[in-house]
TrEMBL record:
Transmembrane segments: none annotated. One of its GO terms (biological process) is quaternary ammonium group transport. This is Sulfate transport system ATP-binding protein. The keyword Signal does not apply. It comes from Methylobacterium pseudosasicola. The keyword Signal does not apply. Keywords: ATP-binding, Nucleotide-binding, Sulfate transport, Translocase, Transport. The chain holds residues 1 to 260 of 362 of the full protein.
Length: 260
């Protein structure tokens, strides 16, 4: 895929300054009477892997859904680069997502699953068939499932399915990749392997990614920067080292400290 040669961003948190890919600006959201997000702002840098960490119910999924366009905020804006994307429908946002239970299409082969987003485009925007085939081949290589294109989801392990789901999300070359506990349902060893593998893929593609997890180890191991959410408020954003060494609040300290 064309993004494969982009530079790694793993050092972004240390020295480099990069541009803002996504700006979340003063987002608030209430469901029924419960306020779920409170005036939340955060900049996601181009090419970074941002871990969105917080206890269950802290608003992580809601924020991701708002960025994706699956939910609308009550207040605030979502900017993609300089463009206001707040009013755009999900199909117009060029986002890719993988959710824990966002299943593959069972009746489609692995290759057709990966090509789905490209095939679904209007004719004028759809790549030619050989180009789609080439891109699917590159993605199968990337997820280390070359030769699996003709298989069906039922013939794959859980971890392999999530890798295909990731390839499907990457196929459309999204502005941002949104991952919501994508390995949540898998067992500990598979989960650990996939973490390492995701980091590797990210280093090779430089794809701007937001990764939701309630698992501190996962966030600290994977992320360029970690954003810690608690009860709908952003407590702190920083590199894994920064948030561990200089927690901005007692809440962050407690939450990060709980696992050591
Ligand atoms: P997290 O991803 O951090 O676990 P969520 O964003 O899923 O948190 O949920 C935050 C809060 O918002 C929870 O209390 C949840 O019950 C509530 N919530 C989320 N979606 C809805 C919805 N569609 N309707 C009503 N309440 C919701």
């Amino acid at each position: 895929m064309s993004g494969a040669s982009r530079a790694s961003s793993h050092t972004a948190g240390l020295t480099e300054r990069s541009s803002t890919a996504i700006r979340v600006e003063g987002i608030s959201k209430t469901f029924d009477t419960a306020a779920v997000l409170h005036d939340l702002s955060i900049d996601v840098r181009a090419g970074e892997l941002l871990g969105l960490l917080g206890p269950s119910g802290s608003g992580k999924t809601t924020l991701l859904r708002i960025i994706a366009g699956l939910d609308a905020p009550d207040r605030g804006r979502i900017l993609f680069g300089d463009d206001d994307a707040t009013g755009l429908a999900v199909q117009e946002r060029a986002v890719g997502f993988v959710f824990q239970h966002y299943a593959l299409f069972k009746h489609m082969s692995v290759a057709d699953n990966i090509a789905y987003g490209l095939n679904a485009r209007r004719r004028a925007e759809r790549p030619a068939r050989p180009e789609i085939k080439r891109r699917v081949g590159d993605l199968l290589d990337l997820i280390r499932l070359s030769g699996f294109g003709d298989r069906y989801p039922s013939q794959l392990s859980g971890g392999q399915r999530q890798r295909v789901a990731l390839a499907r999300a990457l196929a459309v070359e999204p502005r941002v990749l949104l991952l919501d506990e994508p390995f949540g349902a898998l067992d500990a060893q598979v989960r650990k392997d996939l973490r390492r593998w995701l980091r590797e893929i990210h280093d090779r593609t430089g794809q701007t990614t937001i990764f939701v997890t309630h698992d501190q180890d996962e966030a600290l191991e994977l992320s360029d920067r970690v954003a810690v959410l608690d009860r709908g408020r952003l407590e702190q954003v920083g590199t894994p080292d920064e948030v561990q060494e200089h927690p901005a609040s007692a809440t962050v300290m407690k939450f990060l400290g709980d696992h050591v």
